[in-house]
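Researcher: I'd like a candidate sequence for this fold, 425 residues long. If you have to choose between options at a position, lean toward the conservative one.
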């Protein structure tokens, strides 16, 4: 490369030919120091050397901002970095990135949870999903609601949600002590609700950590939410096993038949006969039931929708229902379908003299029925809409007609249990 003694007049006279993208004037005094010129007339000091078999070039600064002596000092500094095995280009990029992150941190330092929470509700989503399920999204809103609204049931006003007291705090100030104090305060209102609020809030912090604009301020809070002192306060998770046993089915079935609302009565029986999730069954519409081919299309949280066969016993129940609106299991609320059958479930259990069984327990009830009917575990899992797993013995995709054989067997077993129970009364 041609070299010259860098002087101010020489630099001012140095021009880049029009037919070239850039041209260089190299210094005789310091190896690697040069001036780069572009066709637009811009000149800048640069440093260029070979390092680990590749060319390293870094811009020092414009010739109007840097003096020649200062540029030479900087070039020697960059050469020392190379001699020590450091890459000045990578070091400069890291410094720029650190400065940018610090600017973001300072600009977001005062952002409160309340400012980011609505963004999370609008843009957040579980892993592998397009968005929150409507019911979970509603729970998130209630967790952060201010309360003060007239109760739909009973008298008085609603209380603020557990997360509401965190909305006024900045994300940056959410350390372990503050989160622990918040959790213990909420625990006095209800341990289960406090634990669920904490898990939801941890999900919010994980989402913040994945967003570039909030990452710097959310890291400390997210780590604090996982601190042993806080996690140790959470109640131990207990796997629910509630279900209606084989010997109890006849009494419960008779109690369900006595319910004054035919849609809730049919809904509860349908859950026990199919093992479907409560939301899938509640959202079933008349136009999704094919009475000719004895099958129906159900909403599914894993696959979106899926089609399963309907047994003769269930079809008979559905045919007996009065058609009110588009939903099979009609309700009087805003949704138009059965929304909260827990009170009816409790009354049937009391009438049958049974201990508490949740609505989800009817899903386990079907699993027991399927096992007692001798059908493969994999077939029952597919019918219930469970994901394929090694825990489901014999899981393999089965056609609708193959599944129909098994569901008819479950219905026959259920019908036999109900008839035996009625004959013993």
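Model: Candidate sequence:
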């Amino acid at each position: 490369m041609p070299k010259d003694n860098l002087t101010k007049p020489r630099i001012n006279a140095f021009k880049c030919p029009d037919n070239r993208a850039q041209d260089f004037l190299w210094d005789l005094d310091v190896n690697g120091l040069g001036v780069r010129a572009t066709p637009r007339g811009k000149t800048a000091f640069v440093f260029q050397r070979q390092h680990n078999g590749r060319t390293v070039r870094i811009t020092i600064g414009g010739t109007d901002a840097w003096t020649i002596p200062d540029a030479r000092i900087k070039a020697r500094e960059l050469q020392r970095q190379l001699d020590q095995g450091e890459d000045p280009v990578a070091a400069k990029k890291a410094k720029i990135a650190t400065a940018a992150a610090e600017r973001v941190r300072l600009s977001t330092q005062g952002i409160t949870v309340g400012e980011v929470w609505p963004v999370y509700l609008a843009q957040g989503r579980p892993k592998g999903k397009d968005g929150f399920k409507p019911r979970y999204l509603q729970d998130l809103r209630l967790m952060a609601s201010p309360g003060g609204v007239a109760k739909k049931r009973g008298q008085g006003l609603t209380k603020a949600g557990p997360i509401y007291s965190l909305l006024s705090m900045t994300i940056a100030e959410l350390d372990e002590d503050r989160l622990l104090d918040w959790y213990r305060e909420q625990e006095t209102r209800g341990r289960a609700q406090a634990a669920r609020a904490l898990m939801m809030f941890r999900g919010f912090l994980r989402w913040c950590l994945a967003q570039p604009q909030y990452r710097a301020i959310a890291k400390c809070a997210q780590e604090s939410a996982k601190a042993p002192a806080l996690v140790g306060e959470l109640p131990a998770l207990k796997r629910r096993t509630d279900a209606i046993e084989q010997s109890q089915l006849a009494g419960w079935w008779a109690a369900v038949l006595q319910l004054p609302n035919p849609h809730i009565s049919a809904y509860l029986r349908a859950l026990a006969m199919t093992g479907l999730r409560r939301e899938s069954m509640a959202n079933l519409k008349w136009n999704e039931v094919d009475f000719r081919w004895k099958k129906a299309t159900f909403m599914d949280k894993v696959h979106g929708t899926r089609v399963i066969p309907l047994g003769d016993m269930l079809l008979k129940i559905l045919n007996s229902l009065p058609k009110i609106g588009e939903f099979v299991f009609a309700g009087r609320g805003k949704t138009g379908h059965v929304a909260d059958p827990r009170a009816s479930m409790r009354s049937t259990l009391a009438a049958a003299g049974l201990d508490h069984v949740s609505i989800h327990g009817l899903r386990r009830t079907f699993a027991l029925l399927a096992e007692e009917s001798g059908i493969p575990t994999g077939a029952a899992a597919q019918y219930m809409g469970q994901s394929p797993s090694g825990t489901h013995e014999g899981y393999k995709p089965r056609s609708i007609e193959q599944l129909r054989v098994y569901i008819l067997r479950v219905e026959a077993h259920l019908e036999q249990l109900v008839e035996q129970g009625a004959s013993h009364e």
